[in-house]
Write a structure and sequence with these properties.
One of its GO terms (molecular function) is ATP binding. Belongs to the AAA ATPase family. Pfam families: AAA. Keywords: ATP-binding, Nucleotide-binding. With 298 residues, the chain is an alpha/beta fold. It has two domains: 197 residues, P-loop containing nucleotide triphosphate hydrolases (Rossmann fold, 3-Layer(aba) Sandwich); 84 residues, no CATH class. It is 49% helix and 12% strand. It has twelve helices and six strands.
């Protein structure tokens, strides 16, 4: 399928193959409820809310370090929201690649962004009653104009960001049933006016030890579905707490990989993961922690 410029994926939700991320990602209590509530309000009542003096922009921004689950959470949210409003019709899920828009040609970035908001997204939104758009690393699209580098073309950067802001306003007026999800690893790089339009800016920090313990328990429970003899490890809360303490400072992705690394600790374990022990897990986490503290000399 030929995708429009800047669009990396188009999906129809809800769909079975999109199940999983919403349940598997572990975040502080209340996070998912707040996200889903915001999404359903926009998708279900966006048109009616336009009559308010301060209507929503249908924009949610997730910020935080890499590995904290921002993209996975957005993908899961799209499926969960689509299921919540499915009685009114299907949802179009659009993934936008912001890195497809910068151009060395003066004014081309601005024109490409304008096409995205004025033509591409409205055309896709017209297909179904609800639309969710995901823009990962939005700082590449809505560059903070006050910090635009003069090593690039600052005039074009300003114009492209201006096009994002005007496009966002026009898109909201034309497509009140559209929800735009944006992620950023670097909030300081996102234009202030873009952030001010967000209905919700949610920061996902590195997990604390309680969340790390839940991530470890979840990872072991998933392994136990493949190798049932590992259920004892999956149910050992004292072990989870110990490993979480060793993982302090890890993001969720690194924590899950450390658990998996324990299974790959030696050929014998890789051949038969049912031989995995608590000592293997501790050794793998300690190795991962030691590796993360090593600095490479210049």
């Amino acid at each position: 399928m030929n995708l429009p410029h800047g669009v990396s994926g188009i999906h129809v939700l809800p769909a079975d193959h999109h199940d999983g991320p919403w349940e598997s990602i572990i975040v502080p209590p209340g996070t998912k409820e707040r996200l889903l509530g915001t999404a359903v309000l926009v998708l279900r009542h966006g048109r009616a809310l336009q009559s308010l003096s301060g209507p929503p922009h249908g924009l949610v921004v997730l910020a935080g370090p890499p590995g904290t689950g921002k993209t996975t959470l957005c993908q899961g949210l799209a499926q969960a929201a689509a299921m919540a409003v499915a009685n009114r019709g299907a949802t179009t899920f659009v993934e936008v690649d912001p890195h497809a828009f910068p151009s060395e040609m003066l004014g081309e970035s601005q024109r490409a962004v304008r096409r995205l908001f004025a033509e591409t997204l409205p055309e896709l939104a017209a297909r179904r009653p609800h639309t969710v758009v995901l823009v990962d690393e939005v700082e590449a699209l809505a560059v903070r104009r006050s910090a635009a580098s003069f090593e690039t073309n600052p005039v074009d950067v300003h114009r492209a960001t201006d096009a994002v802001l005007s496009g966002l306003d026009a898109l909201r007026a034309a497509c009140p049933h559209l929800l735009l999800l944006a992620t950023t690893n670097f909030t300081e790089g996102v234009d202030e006016a873009f952030l001010s339009r967000a209905d919700l800016v949610l920061r996902l920090d590195l997990p604390d030890v309680d969340v790390l313990a839940r991530i470890i328990r979840s990872s072991l429970a998933e392994l136990a579905t493949l190798w049932p003899t590992l259920r004892g490890l999956a149910q050992d809360e004292a072990l989870h707490a110990k490993l979480a303490g060793l993982c302090e400072g890890f993001d969720g992705r690194r924590t899950r990989k450390a658990v998996l690394a324990a299974v790959a600790g030696c050929p014998e374990l890789a051949e038969n993961p049912e031989r995995l022990t608590a000592d293997d897990l501790s050794a793998a986490v300690e190795a991962a922690q030691a590796l993360s503290s090593v600095t490479t000399p210049l």
